[in-house]
Amino acid sequence: MLECQVVFRHGTPSGWGSGVQLPGVSSQRSSYPKPFKAQVVQECLQPGATVSSVAINHAINANVIRKWMPL
Questions:
Q1: What is the pTM (predicted TM-score) of this model?
Q2: How confident is the model at residue 6 (pLDDT cuts 50, 70, 90)?
Q3: Helices in 1-71 by DSSP H: which ranges?
Q4: CB of 51 closer than 8 Å to CB of 64
């Protein structure tokens, strides 16, 4: 049986930012060094590569990588 703990942020039990905290899962955002971001973006720009496939290879959400991409 998986145990979950409800976590409330900003001190408002019924308000913005509440969520479920799974055991062993950090609630902090990941921070990536600039050289790593540049490497991942370069991988996405290679012919035949997709943001989704690169994201899967690096275990990063594709939307995070899309924010790093030039317009």
A1: 0.61
A2: low
A3: 34-44, 51-58, 62-68
A4: no
Extents of the domains making up the chain: 34-68
Nearest to 70 by CA among 38, 46, 47, 48: 38
Inter-CA distances, 48 with 5, 18, 29, 44, 52, Å: 42, 40, 30, 9, 12
Q: Helix, strand or coil for residue 32?
A: coil
Angle, CA of 60, 56 and 48, to the nearest 5°? 120
Residue 35's pLDDT is 96
Q: What's the sign of the alpha-carbon dihedral 63, 64, 66, 71?
A: positive
12 touches 32 (CB < 8 A): no
